[in-house]
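Both lines are retained for reference:
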Amino acid sequence: MHKERDSSFLVSLVVAFIISTPLNGQFNTYSPYTRFALGDLTKPGVAQNMAMGGTGLAIHEGNRINYVNPAAFSALDSTSVYFDFGANTYSNRYETTDYSNTWWNMNLHHVAFASSMGKYMGFSAGIIPYSSIGYNIKQEYNDYTHGMAMDTYFQGEGGTLDFYVGTSIKLWERLSLGVTMNYLMGKLTRTRTVDFPMNSTYSDVNSTEEVKLRKPVFTLGLQYKEVFGDKFFFSVGGIYDFKASTELSNEYSVNNQFYLDDAVWINDSVKIDPNYIMGEDTMFNTLNIPQKFGVGIAFGIPNKLTITADYYKQDWTGTQSGENYATTNATSMHFGAEYLPDAKAIRGYHKYISYRLGGYYSNSYLMVNDYQLKDYGITFGVGLPVKTLKTSINVAFTLGTRGTTEHNLVKENYGILTFNVTLHDMWFRKRRFD
């Protein structure tokens, strides 16, 4: 009885933390590629998924909130509720043929809740990141003929959150069907400033673009799992995201800063056209999110070994484009494995730890300077159980590379440390005494 009260108290602390934590921290990023379209599209899953290469489409287990496939919600224990919250930290190194730079940050990643709805149904709701932008770029221009110097600063911040609600039902003990409504909501702000460092009497021109997004996107999920005693299991899964189109709330402004104590003029050889600058590069009034397919497979030994692989495809071709970029057909492959030495061991804490590893390779939805960005990496991590509180602490490490120093582009080498706590509490079990 005391353990149940302690666990319920911990649940209350988690809920209080979730309510009081600001969500705009999820938008901290710093990549020049986020200047285009929706920026970075978030890698799928929580720490359990990310440590296994971002897999999860065919994973049907009752010890985690697997929102990658809504069909997985029906695997949850019929007497339990789950709370999950997590954060991650990034370390990035950016390289060109001549320069390099490093940067790091820390974000709140997600908060999620899940519960069974009887023996054959499950439910989950949460807030997860969908996309993010963040960059600060300086472009220098020198006109040696006229002795003119001009600096252009590109800056961007913001992103999109996914408020999801999903449910699933299990049919004939093996087949599960699920559906999720993902309400995408966020704001993207991009600015461009033109400055004349050698001519303090010139005016500065600043243009700002602010895009606000509000749109539901629906996901269907399916999983089939066959278990042969305690010797072997096999499962397949898939998801389908419906396409969505929406008119955006788009605000655009141009500001000229004048210096009252000096004469105001701009050299005739320098043309400043903020409409062209912002409109051609980044501005869009309609957002088309294409349909998305995903299929996965998993097999192994129940409660001991899982080997899994996923494949995604989403064709963004023609949805957005600008002077130096265009969206294109995106594909990705993910591979992962999880090993649990002995879940029933009496001694030896290391036997309860889940060991995970994986990898991924993706062709990005962005084509920059006629080059489709590649993103690939390896992952590994552990799941650390806290049995007295029915809780697990999960840690995942990602080491990846995106882009290239060729084609006048930037190469990103990054490391991601992802941490989440999965709290598993018994709420529906009857007490025999009070």
Summary: Residues 2-426 form a domain with the Porin fold (CATH 2.40.160.60).
